[in-house]
Every structure is written in C-alpha cells, then in structure tokens.
Amino acid sequence: MTEKLPRLSVATRIRNNFLAGIIICAPIAITLWLTWSVVRWADSWVKPYLPARYDPDNYLNFAMPGSGLLIGLIIITLIGFLGKNLIGQQIVMFSESLVRRVPLVRVIYKSVKQIFETVLKERSNSFKKVGLIEYPSPGLWAMVFIATDAKGEIASKFNAMGHDMVSVFLPPTPVPTAGFLIFVPREKIVLLDMSPEDAAKLLISGGLVTPEELASQIAAPEAVRKPLPAPVEM
C-alpha cells in the first residue's frame, strides 16, 4: 500500500506560489534596477559636461537614457587609442610629471594607477584563481582569491627564512568587496577548479549556491587538492 501524500492547504499553496514568484521576479528586478542605476550614474557624470550641440537630448523631444554612458565609453576608448601613439605617450608622461610634483596627490595617483594596471593588465593572473586555506585555525577552511607571488621586501624577508609565500585575498560573506590580505606558504594553498565568478556566487549566497558542474569534484575532495604551481623562472 502506498501512502497518500497529505494535501496542502490553500494558505500553504498561496505561500509556496508567492515564494516561487519571488524567486523568479527578484533577480530580474534587481538586475534591471542595478543596470538602470549604472546608466543614470554615467549620464549624470557625462551629460553635464557635453556641449549643447553634442547632446542628443537637445535634438529629441525626450531624454535618451544611456547616451551619456555610450559617449563616455567612446571617449575613454579614444583616449586609450591616442595614449598608445608617440604623441599621446608624451602628453601622458608630461601630465604624470605634473601630478608627481604634488605631495599628497602623487601618492594617491601612484597607488590607484598601480591597482588598475594590476587588475586590468591582460597578462596578469591576479584574482583569476581560487583556492582554500586553513583559516582561522587548523581544520577550518576558508575560500580565497589568489592575488600574486610575494614581491619586494616581503618576498626577500620570507626567502631568507626559506618560505615561498603567495599573497591571497580573503573576502567575507556575503559582501566579498572587503577582506584581508594574507601571505600563505604556496604548499598550504589548495587550488580549486572553479572560476572566480562561481566562487563569488558561493560567497555571496553563504554557501547555498554551488556550481552544478563542480558538484562531483566537491564530493571527492582528492579531486581538488592540488598544489598551487610554482612561479616560472624567467
């Protein structure tokens, strides 16, 4: 004899349907809201500085959202194109020499430029790998983003002690935009196959969203326990 499943009450069905609607509508609404916010933010920064003859709103009977964002992208692309030729490089170098003469501004400019060059440089592997480290104590594991090998004075100090250290970024949950910079021995890092995007989803959801294609690897820990490769000697 098969047992009959209990029938759900009308209130339970309404609640389940409401929750299903939230799951469907919330991601769409949040995505649209964030997109619209970015477009309005870009328009508010670009449009006020556009000459009237170049503002498309002056030729239309309605405001055209996104025109400021599009024009901003075009201007940034043109600046990047001009900055690659000889004359553009000379202008950039002259501008940077002026900035470096201002005591406080030169420190901020140098730090911000170094961050953007490291993050946006095509040859950089920073934050493109995800790993696990034992944190905050042995037996407890935390997910980290691999930044780069230890360099400069920090690398020389660790090398003198016989340690090959790697800098990693330990983000918190559920907002992975802030965190801790930690230097970890290379052999102590368990490298994962998941992409940084999948790792961010896992962190933001508090471990509730796990990439389906990695489920088999997570079920078999030996599949993910591979050491971080040593740096290539040039």
Helix content: 40-55%
Q: Gyration radius, to the nearest Å?
A: 25 Å
Q: How far is the N terminus from the C terminus?
A: 73 Å
Structural class: alpha+beta
User: Average pLDDT, to the nearest integer?
Assistant: 79
Uncertain runs: 220-224
Largest sheet: 6 strands, antiparallel
In one word, what is the shape? flat
| H/E element order | HHHHEEHEEEHHE
* Total domains: 3
Q: How much strand content do the residues show?
A: 5-15%
Main-sheet strand order equals 4-3-2-1-5-6
Number of strands: 6
How many alpha or pi helices?
7
Protein name: Putative membrane protein
Keywords: Membrane, Transmembrane, Transmembrane helix
Organism: Rhizobium metallidurans
Transmembrane segments: 18-39, 59-83
Structural key phrases:
3 domains, 234 residues, alpha+beta, 6-stranded antiparallel beta sheet
Summarize the structure in short.
With 234 residues, the chain is α+β, with helices and mostly antiparallel strands.
